[in-house]
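Quick one:
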Amino acid sequence: MIKLLALLTLMLSSANTSCDKERSLPVPSPGEFERYTTDLTMHSDILGQTIRYSIYLPADYTTATDKRYGVVYLLHGYGDNHGSWNDQWLHITTLIDSKEAAGEISPMIYVMPQGFNSYYVNRYDGSFDYMDMFAEELVPYIDRTYRTRADRSSRAVAGYSMGGFGAMILPSKHAELFSVSIPLSMSFRTDEQYMSESQDGWNQQWGSIFGGYGMSGEGRLTDYYKEHCPFYFFNEQSAASFSDIAYYLDCGDDEEQLLIANDRLHRQMRELGIAHEYRVRNGAHTSDYWHDAMREGLEFIECRFNGGTWPDSQEVATDASYSGVELRETVGGAEVVAYPSAGYDEAKQNSVIYFVHDDLAADDLHRVMNLWNVAVNTKPFVVVCIPASQAGGDFAALAEAIDAKYGIAAGAERHFGAGRGTGAGILYGYAAGTEARMAALYLFDGNMEAAAAAPCAGTYYYIDTTDEGEHFVASGELYERCKADGVPYDYRVRNGLTGAESSMGGFLAAKSNLMDRIKN
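Output:
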């Protein structure tokens, strides 16, 4: 097989110019074309050694010889190598091909460099200046060697785990080179986590890079660490300087420790007004999770490279008409709307979903019921919709009246709660304590106070919000409380704004989970 470098004739060009028409075009030599090539090399004077990299070129690279392409740098995790994005784990080329075929992304050049275990920064003692190599040698080399669009607006960095840290730090420290940052399951810690890390773990993975080797407690929080930690370099004084970088963060809710740091960083960026996209999906620290994350990540890069506008929220098709049974009644002094399932019988032992909402209009209630397919579900249950303005007094008494009215069987396993905004907070307070009142509680952009009341150990919590939701702090704090207390939960952060419209995506995403729990 002919190596890719043998296919390209190198020509002198300016490494730093942003004007493509002034740069000479490397012309491919005749021969067999390989889109994906691994174990290519570049010598680094800064590191004094050879750097390996893999590359995936566009399918038309050797035919459209006057065409230039944007560049995506893909960074691997700790202990992995320049082949991990494709050969061993993530199979990124298959995903790229499918999205190109679907017309969802345009052709780009993908560079997968050897990152060692550097965290993509210079070591504190100057013994291994990896970031300098990346910015001063690798990027110019790629621009000289391949037909790139040599401008920051056409360069992105994406990475997983340690590579996620690199995808955050490289654009943040070198905004003159990169415009897009996509950290996936970014490997970093809160100060508290760093200080409690095992001595061996700290020394091997962090202390040797950021300083504080052999130290414990606050001695680990060196000035060099703070210089490279986003919790420190994102601050009130610096926030505006990051406005020209498009950030997209993604981390699974089953991560052991990383989601705590990633979620807190999201909250900090929100509070500082640093624009970004943020996703929390079901999953852990796995190649499958990162492969799926790059589906939207590639589209995000495409949008930014081509001057598009990323959508503020998820579009959910809903029907405002409702063909099932709708009961408007006064129960326990509250004006409720009840939606019984097809199998509901007032004389039977039914289950109930208390849905406490922020005074949703009738059409919005219909849309929720259609998303949940209440009318066609054969399990005997009823959804009782209660305006938060009428449910904030003695909810225990109201729940008792609802149970009596609709023939709800005794026991927590027959009781479920779903709330939005203030309604979620009311239900959370009702369910808190040591005795389980409900089998499961679904909270959508909920205004809860996890610090004031502990989640119930006998209740499952489904916590859903959007990355621009009003109650993003409350949702994140409840996730942390459930994790710390060992309470079962799922945590989701979706693309969206705040309000009823954005919650529709959450109602849809929770449907299968909710219905499965009711059936069981």
